[in-house]
Amino acid sequence: TLRAAFDLWPHPQVWCLSLTNLTFGLCTGYMNGVVNGEFAAKSPKFGEASIGTLMALTSLLAAGCALLLGRLARRAGKGLVLGLGGLAFACIPLGVLGARPGPANGYWS
Known about the structure:
Keywords: Membrane, Transmembrane, Transmembrane helix. The chain has 109 residues and is mainly α. It has helices at 2-7, 12-40, 51-76, 78-98. The longest helix is centred in the N-terminal third of the chain and has 29 residues, at 12-40. The relative contact order is 0.11.
């Protein structure tokens, strides 16, 4: 119920996990708005018609990584997996900042 959800708010674990959800939401918006909209749509190899396929491939890759990271978490602990997840989130904007995709580099294709 809604009351049960509010009862969880005082627990610090909920607030720590909420940062992961916030980061996921920001990265999803960045991928859809900037990476797909600005780079993939303008790429001669991908183009606007491929954005749906790229989004599906992103989801498929995320599902595969979730399976692998689930196994790793059981063996090595959740801390390592959370660190790897944070690194993966950081790689998206850092890759664009480090080498902005454009006509000069073939939009990374």
